[in-house]
Amino acid sequence: MSVGENLEKIFSLENKVILLTGATGGIGSVLAKGLADAGAEMALCDIGNDKLEALGTEINENGSAKAFDLNILQMDSIQLCVEKVMKEFGRIDVLINCAGINKREGNIINMASHNSVGMLGGCSVYGATKSAVTALTRSMAIEWAKYNIRANAIAPGHILTPLTTVTWEHPERSKYLSDRIAMGRPGTPEEILGLTILLASDSSSYMSGMMYHIDGGCLAGGQPWPYDTKY
């Protein structure tokens, strides 16, 4: 077996149905395309608009995807969306919460944040909600393990997306952040894809209840100490 064939066997998402919320977001759209490229059948769930339909059309050129309207602020919309996905695909193997929906499926991947553990001033509510996502993930892993359901969280650090462009283009804010990231730069949505594929695949079958950071070394301590180590 060649290296490529072996890697495909280990990490392939072929025949896995993945429900992705927040599918048209800066991170969600990259994950949608990358997961489809790895063989997954994608249920793209977001507020119905031209952007969602365009994403589905793009993926279907080489992969498999279907768009579903979802407003996560409305319980009726959540229930209807899940019913439509189940009717279309017959099952849901992986649920990725780039937005937020909690249904009992086989493998759950929640998007937490660097702010789950490392705070920035003025982000108290955001940090509190992301900390709650992390705690919820651990609870899911404990309570649903008996149903063979795994739950993990990915905590992106400072990622460059359309929503954060204003921060990274600001001369003072961008320097403040870069000084605190060991790699000295923002991450990209594409750099979240690899771990997402791992957690969605059977290669992570004994991984549950954990939060995994993708932060360029931010929590490790940021930029090196610039002074002589002699005191």
Q: Your description of this structure?
A:
With 231 residues, the chain is α/β, with parallel strands linked by helices. The protein has a single domain, classed as Rossmann fold (3-Layer(aba) Sandwich). The protein is built from eight helices and seven strands. Strands 3-2-1-4-5-6-7 form a seven-stranded parallel sheet, sandwiched between helices. Helix 2 packs across helix 8. The longest helix is centred in the middle third of the chain and has 21 residues. The model has no long low-confidence stretch (mean pLDDT 91).
Can you give keywords for this protein?
231 residues; alpha/beta; Rossmann fold; globular
Specify the biggest β-sheet.
7 strands, parallel
Helical fraction: 25-40%
User: How does the helix and strand content classify structurally?
Assistant: alpha/beta
Rg is: 19 Å
User: Which geometry do the CA atoms define?
Assistant: globular
Strand order of the largest sheet: 3-2-1-4-5-6-7
Strand content: 15-25%
Instruction: Using the coordinates shown, work out and report the CATH topology.
Output: Rossmann fold
Secondary-structure topology with pairs:
Blueprint: H1 3-11, E1 17-21, H2 26-37, E2 41-46, H3 50-59, E3 64-69, H4 75-89, E4 94-97, E5 107-111, H5 124-144, E6 150-156, H6 165-168, H7 171-179, H8 190-200, E7 211-214
Parallel strand pairs: 1-2, 1-4, 2-3, 4-5, 5-6, 6-7
Helix pairs in contact: 2-8
